[in-house]
Amino acid sequence: MATSTETFENLSADIDIEALRAKYRHERDRRIRPEGLGQYRSAAGEFGYYAKDPYTPFTEREPRQDRVDALVIGAGFGGLLTAARLREAGLERIRLVDEAGDVGGTWYWNRYPGIHCDIEGSVYLPLLEELGRMPSMRYAPGEEIRQHAIAIAEHYGLYPDALFQTRVSQLEWLDAENEWQVETDRGDRIRAQYVVVSQGTLTQPKLPGIPGIETFRGHTFHTSRWDYAYTGGSADGGLAGLRDKRVAVVGTGATGVQVIPHVGQDAAHLYVFQRTPSAVDVRGNRPLDPQWVQGQEPGWQRRRMDNFLAAITGEPVEEDLIGDGWTSSSRLQRTYLSGVVDQSVSEAERELTDELLDAHKMNQIRARVDEVVADPQTAELLKPWYRYMCKRPCFSDYYLQTFNRPNVTLVDTADTGGITRMTETGVVVGETEYPVDCLIFATGFDVGMSGIVTGALPVLGRNGVNLLQTWRGGPQTLHGFYSPGFPNLFHLGSMQNANSVNFAHILGEQAEHIAAVVARAQEKGAVVEPSAQDAQQWVRTIAEVSADTTKFQSECTPGYYNGEGRTRKILTFSPGPVKFHDLLRRWRSEQIDDVLTPVKETR
Ligand code: NDP
């Protein structure tokens, strides 16, 4: 990857930028759907079988009526990390609540064949040093990550109080008692001193609203509810149940890229229905040397995580410790993922340099397709024509190779705006019907906001005030964590906070922050609640500092990154996550008491 010091001249030498822009516009325009996000439908409702948990049988239990110190909604890494840090801060009764049958969040639900994390395990998997564990592979398999989540819950003693297969249905602050009353869909009524909401972002599977989708009589499921009873095998592959089946996979995003090589290997025939090709770079996964960790000084994981975060967001690093596809393309991602803008050059110079670097990267990615895929027509269809960060970059050493198999057919649906319709027995694109026995949807997820923002989880704060009413004009938080009028309630996620492709790291920093504030509140016998002025000031700050990426997004091919072509400004702390974490550390040492009110004097 070229550096920022390279001149326009040598970057632009072999790039016809006007022709490339025209090609990108053309490819975007033939994929834009007038319905935007309305083209999708929920995987729940009459598609009830998608909503079922295929991994854990439902168990009846008596409703709980008890009291805990902290109740954490969501048992993915955000919830687990916060619970772990609250345990370290001295809280005794900590209750995780999750709709899933166990901990793990996204790693609980997504168990499809080929699942791996595309961020290096040494910086993605939290608390490796605390637990004395190491991933077996540089890019860890999903099942190993799920087992790591279980190990965290065991290590911090989180299972005895946890409630699974349970959805929190209401939160109500009891002014007289200074605690929350939590109600669930299992009839529980639980009192909690603190409530933490960590509901994740890509959690609700979505389906394309293909005409006739409900008429298909073959077998069908979404990748996040993999049906191993039908396919056989495991996340390592060996899908013996597909050997006599004609299988369709719809979707070629980050999930499709991991699933398709396994289905291609085992199905009698695989049809891949593609609307937009992913940009697929080299992976180079390999086993990790178990001895490596012996030679590391304590604190190695924190240093490695900090180094990765700094490298991908354009902060100076002496040495790139990770050195992979993310760090080498940081210049292309940092603005569009983390909101970080290089202020050292003029806007025009920055934009043109970024565009030329982007063109070089995408040319490499397109050249790789020609190198790997034998059939020139198929290769042409697999080339992505958009800028690198318009969609989630993918990495695989097996995906493109799958299209050289005689039992695999790529069906491009760009000209028809996706699949035309479905029949009882197959998939129709244009005038052609492809009869299939099984249809697998790798069609992604609704970009979830916390149920607090959608209204799915009503929250009543001081004096019975509804949080959604207070947030009519947008969320009102200090640093994204807490709001006036809603004491001892904490939010995790990217709302008015920071963002990074290694979101597990962001969640880890949030967990530490929340635990530090709770520890201080315990020490002082206080409740946690920012003042209205501090929250208003933070909302103003975020609006001012957030990078405006709407021009870039509007020129992108549609996808969930740009609301299917309906762009909006994303509010995030654009000086970047490294600076945001510094800001939080400073705030903790100088201003932490600003959010504490002694219980007797509550506002
Ligand atoms: P995506 O939303 O990225 O992809 C959905 C796919 O379905 C796209 O290829 C889309 O095409 C296609 N699609 C949707 N509707 C139709 C239609 N009507 N006809 C044909 N195709 C259609 O979902 P994923 O599950 O792949 O990934 C979601 C996110 O999950 C990733 O971006 C990433 O953040 C995360 N993830 C992370 C991984 C990791 O290793 N860390 C691994 C896997 C996922 P089109 O592009 O044209 O809309």
UniProtKB/TrEMBL annotation:
InterPro entries xrefs: FAD-binding_Monooxygenases (IPR050775), FAD/NAD-bd_sf (IPR036188)
Pfam families, sorted: NAD_binding_8 (PF13450)
Keywords noted in UniProt: FAD, Flavoprotein, Monooxygenase, NADP, Oxidoreductase
Any GO molecular function: oxidoreductase activity, acting on paired donors, with incorporation or reduction of molecular oxygen, NAD(P)H as one donor, and incorporation of one atom of oxygen
Cofactor(s), names only, from the UniProt record: FAD
Record family assignment: Belongs to the FAD-binding monooxygenase family.
Full protein name: NAD(P)/FAD-dependent oxidoreductase
Lineage start: Bacteria, Bacillati, Actinomycetota, Actinomycetes, Kineosporiales
